[in-house]
Write a structure and sequence with these properties.
By secondary structure, the protein is mainly α. 42% of the residues lie in helices and 6% in strands. The N and C termini lie close together (8 Å).
Length: 80
C-alpha cells in the first residue's frame, strides 16, 4: 500500500485526511483540530483544502448549533 503524505510535519496521510472529512471535518481548521495537520509549517493547508473540495458540508448545521461534528478516528496506519 502506497502512503501519500499530506503533512510531513506530523506524518498525516491523504487517507487520514479523507477519513476525517468523511467523519465530518469540513475545513482545514477542523482537520487541524482532528490530527494537527497544517498547524506547524502550514505548507499542507492548500493540499488539505483541495482534498476537502468545495462541496457542501454535511454536518455544518450541527456545527452552527455548537454541537460536536467530529467522531474519533482510529489510526489508519494500524489497519494497514
Amino acid at each position: 500500500m502506497t502512503r501519500v503524505y499530506v503533512c510531513s510535519c506530523f506524518g498525516i496521510t491523504e487517507q487520514q485526511v479523507k477519513q476525517h472529512a468523511a467523519d465530518g471535518a469540513c475545513t482545514p481548521r477542523q482537520i487541524a483540530s482532528a490530527c494537527k495537520a497544517g498547524t506547524d509549517c502550514g505548507s499542507c493547508v492548500r493540499r488539505i483544502q483541495a482534498l476537502l473540495g468545495r462541496g457542501a458540508c454535511p454536518r455544518r448545521e450541527l456545527a452552527d448549533q455548537g454541537k460536536p461534528v467530529l467522531s474519533e478516528v482510529a489510526e489508519l496506519d494500524e489497519a494497514a
